[in-house]
Amino acid sequence: MHDIQPTDRVSLEEHYAISQHAYAEARMLQNHQYKEWLEEIVADDIHLWMPVTERRYRKDKRPEPGPDDMAIYSDDYSEVKQRVDRMYTGTVWMEDPASDIKYLLTNIEAFHTDQADLFKVYTNVAYIRHRQQDERTEHVGSRIDLLRKVGDKFQLVRRKITLDARVTVDKNLYFFG
Amino acid sequence: MIDSTELVDTKNSTQAKKIFGDQDVYEQELERIFGRCWLFLAHECMLEKTGDFITTTMAEDPVVVTRAKDGSINAFINSCSHRGNRVCTADSGNSKSFVCNYHGWVFGSDGSLVDVPLEETCYHGDIDKSKFGLPKIRVESYRGFVFGCFDDDAPSLNDYLGDWGWYLDTFMVGAGEGMELVGPPMKSTLKCNWKVPAENFVGDAYHVGWTHAAALEVLGGELAMLAGNTAEMPYDQLGLQVTTRHGHGFGVIRQAAASIHVKREGFDKFNQEMIPKVAEKLGQPRADLFDGHWNCTTFPSCSFLYGTNIFKVWHPRGPNEIEVWSYVLVHKSMDDATKKEVVKQAVRSFGTAGTLESDDGDNMVNATSINKGAQARKNRMSSTMAQGHEGPHPDYPGIVGSSFVGETSYRGFYRFYQEIMNADSWQAIHEKDDEWDDMFENKDFWKNKLAGDK
């Protein structure tokens, strides 16, 4: 479903609903409400994907990485849930004291698709994380989401995160969304 | 020159804390270790066709590895012989030649200089191109794994691996058609000394129950019982630890190969089918280890977990930083679905966002950064666990420790570290081939233990 294509741009009202949903999701994660995020935001048929992208010459005709290729994240629901559950064990030493993370979301563009309940959303994102005393890391990239409208809410069905850096300048990329 | 007997005390099994972070120690390591040991470059499967290339580094030296027209694999320093600029700036690809962006010098896939702009008009034809090839690096392969070495006097890769090759063959020869690596590698930085993860992989099953308590609890599997170190377990019956001549070593937890993998139907089936084949090809001692979970380091800086199948290179970037490159090991003869399953599970645990990987970072960084303290770095670290509970074994080469939780292979890693840091040449190292294991004094450990077990 990652390859479902966008059609028309959404209306102003729909755009407002989708962008507010994105900010509410980010706030939930910033507040370490992972269980709530899983229950309220994540669809049962999620695929959360962060491919590994090489630096290649422009003339290189090899295809872009697909969902079966090496990926930093390639999680179904049970796998996302496992990551969430780990945060509640009480023995994640690196998160005690807890780190702080902010999601800076911008360039949000939302589109209809050929399925009435599915929306394609493009976002630029900066994840800025502070840990311990002076540890600060920043990851900049883009997100391509597929949202499903259920009643007056949205669920996350597909998320592809592409980070711009080839080398991750951080101890890990264990964060959500 | 720093006397490495100050850095490593093999009798008392301690190391000076300053080995993590001291600039002078690091400079000596670059010359005496990274300048003389075999360093992992690539797997042959990444260089299948003529012109295929990858770029990597050997310590901090940038290197291009290529498959040349004659089928040979070549490695050379990625620096133009004219004014030093990098000649290849992509991670991988296929190219007949490498053109320096600075003045346009062109090098072939064997590293030779093939074209120089304005050769007739401005060099006046007076340049001997044969003298300006890119500096070549010795290249040899072991079971498809390609290593490079800067030192012509170093032993062959086969001899450098020595008894460690005997163990590697357990899965590289014993099972199916051998192993290969899946990439492209994930890359991340860690502000730690390169030896912290290298020693951790060579012999630290001790940290698993504590550092990784959270991950083990949610993953379940055979290792879940280790979480928190509260379960009573007969550790001396659950595995072994081994060190060898040149510091390579590993620990193995029996019958736990895929224990970190949650989805592992194909992998389990493959392993079970292979056990009798390993026994047939290589004998029972190695078949007994085949379905274990192995934590391993090939000295100095190439580590992997067989079973979990993550494969890592710790590229040093100064005394206080490394770049971690993570690939996944798979058996060539696994079906595609099983390979995908293994890759995904390996990355979920020890990729850049892995559930276990994310437990380790702070420990490694803090063990290094603490040594900025002038007083802290005067102290020493210990690796004394189960000292004496190790020795030569009737079935297994090297020095074998009694439990997978122990520090035998730490001691062996730092024994060779001390030796190579002080040795003037490989010749000086060869001269001690018969006495390398003298520090492991309890020569009858296994004889007595095995007699007692009967």
Short key terms for the protein model shown above:
heterodimer, A: 177 residues, alpha+beta, Nuclear Transport Factor 2, Chain: A, 6-stranded mixed beta sheet, globular, B: 454 residues, Naphthalene 1,2-dioxygenase Alpha Subunit, Chain A, domain 1, Rieske Iron-sulfur Protein, 2 domains, 9-stranded antiparallel beta sheet, 7-stranded antiparallel beta sheet, 14 helices
Description:
The complex is a heterodimer of chains A (177) and B (454). Chain A has 177 residues and is of the alpha+beta class. Chain A has a single domain, classed as Nuclear Transport Factor 2, Chain: A (Roll), CATH 3.10.450. Chain A has helices at 12-30, 34-40, 77-86; strands spanning 42-51, 71-75, 100-112, 118-131, 135-150, 153-163. Chain A has a six-stranded mixed sheet with strand order 2-1-6-5-4-3. Chain A is globular, with a radius of gyration of 17 Å. Chain A starts with 11 loop residues before the first helix and ends in a 14-residue tail after the last strand. With 454 residues, chain B is of the alpha+beta class. Chain B folds into two domains: 4-32 and 163-453, Naphthalene 1,2-dioxygenase Alpha Subunit, Chain A, domain 1; 39-142, Rieske [2Fe-2S] iron-sulphur domain (Rieske Iron-sulfur Protein, 3-layer Sandwich). Chain B has helices at 4-7, 23-34, 157-161, 163-172, 195-203, 208-211, 213-219, 265-282, 284-290, 336-350, 357-369, 408-422, 426-430, 445-453; strands at 8-9, 14-16, 39-43, 52-58, 61-67, 73-77, 92-94, 97-99, 106-108, 113-115, 136-142, 145-149, 179-190, 239-243, 249-253, 293-298, 302-306, 310-316, 322-331, 380-382, 390-391, 399-401. Chain B has a nine-stranded antiparallel sheet. In chain B, helix 5 packs across helix 12 (408-422). The model of chain B has no long low-confidence stretch (mean pLDDT 96). The interface between A and B is large, with 35 and 44 residues.
